[in-house]
């Protein structure tokens, strides 16, 4: 449709039809929806409004959605097709590592391809929109949804969020195999106080603008995500879903964002609970005035807008602006020309978890794993080595993370299967449950999650297996249900049953390579000094077993680098590398009461952002800048020579950090500005170049303006956020 045709359509709509376009319900109102992702409340929305609903969420399947659309159009007065949305977070039928793992790949090209795979599979299954990428900065491992983000860093999250948007949306949403991206959760949902789910967020405007808002800008304003989702939390006292500064000043006016804004699940009604409005009428009015176009699964818009427009409390122009944005999105998706878009049962079957997609998933899973320790036990031998596989994830299909909703467990290559493709295992035993009997966790569907009280039989079996083996591969970590939404944890330790398993096995066989399956960084101190190897594998997805087997036996070489710092212990969080120096910075290795330090633990995380080992070693020369001074509109290129000094070919993620030495406000001790994956054969050297310009030196200055300031900058290039090789440049703009 042309814009004028859209405008004519808008003008032809009744008030009820217009309001219907702004209502989103769960699929169960239409098709016995498969997924209930939020509070299932009886909405009490009148039947005639249900029939006008503009979109539904979390129903999938080409045949099912074609049927829904057909029935809907037959009985919908406006004849405007419905939008179908879902949480395709880390894959559809082919499931990729959780996004926190994908961030560790530092491979935006592969992450973009993975998003494109998800778009191909889900669009064939009839979906139009995915509620992804989630680009919230995450620095507190107590929060359950760190698994859904690509990590703690401004640069990395922006690059990865934009890559996912490109992958989902392709060059145009009229192209087959694309879906609209929805960036979330706007804003700063990843910084809830105390790491407690849905808790308040209080950040200075400086931190919001310099850090937390940047990735949303990259994904929405730069990469062009078609939708933005508002977050549950308050930002400096005002719930994001009713926050004029965020939604109107920043998003619409400063960023000139023209896309659709959708609330998170029931968030408009929650404005009442937050205490910023007295009732549903005020909640609806505030949200609409802030530019929230779609009300996700409440009766706020459905129950209050008509009366407020008819009584003049809300102007119809305001309503029309939101309705027009929804119509424009439907138009961009081509729904007026073809309400069934790319829904295609045979394509859905052909594409779902097909070989090509599995290859992408395996490769991304290999690149997402982070090798933290290795005394040489890895890579394992395929012959002449008795290998016992022990652990609760050893032969489990539950390795796809809590936000993978549409996969088939039969499609999962378990670790056991992957390893048995390579060699004959001497044993494969569970060793223990994932959880202790207490505390009892609550699963996504409200079910109790707990281990057995007495797991000694499993441990005894593991000890026997370990005795007969040369080496043990042991899986430890979390249940996928222990992370994701509503999964905040106050402790990050491994459960007692897993500690007992490790101790008992270590007693008879100290050659243990530990794989940690988790949705968050855990407190690994209990095993770190005894494990012969330690690899963080997150929740690796449907090809996880194949990827891990390749890494364990050296058919792939670890290249993953931490997207989020691994804390020394929970008392240290939030912990992140881009910290402030303070006026009394602690000096590693010195004890002085009056420095910014803890009395009982180190300041440094157990493993820093950007850290990860390989099966080879890399060395860095001193970086060299092509100019000592850089002015307005100019760039400076810093070149660092990287060499593979080991015996195995491998890929290094070369990272470039910048420190602003003197400025009108304090600045982080360093910030990642660029990175590159570099493949090197043994002995090979490569000159790796990074080009910086004034946007890399810019920040929110003391006078609240944005831009660089004259002065000295240190530029570090290395293999993690503690990179030591540095050079200095002067910005003279
Ligand atoms: C959930 C999540 C959001 C998700 C939405 C729809 O509550 O906060 O990330 O996209 O509801 O399922």
From TrEMBL:
Molecular functions per Gene Ontology: beta-glucosidase activity
Q: Which keywords are on file for this protein? A: Glycosidase, Hydrolase, Signal
A Pfam family that this protein carries is Glyco_hydro_3_C
The domain of life for this entry's organism is Bacteria
Entry's EC annotation: 3.2.1.21
According to UniProt, the reaction catalysed is: Hydrolysis of terminal, non-reducing beta-D-glucosyl residues with release of beta-D-glucose
GO BP annotations of the record are: glucan catabolic process
Q: Does the keyword Transit peptide apply?
A: no
Say if the entry is tagged with keyword Hydrolase: yes
Query: The Fibronectin type III-like domain covers which part of the protein?
Result: 652-721
* Alphabetical list of NCBIfam families matching this protein: PRK15098.1
Give the family per the record.
Answer: Belongs to the glycosyl hydrolase 3 family.
The protein's name in its UniProt record? beta-glucosidase
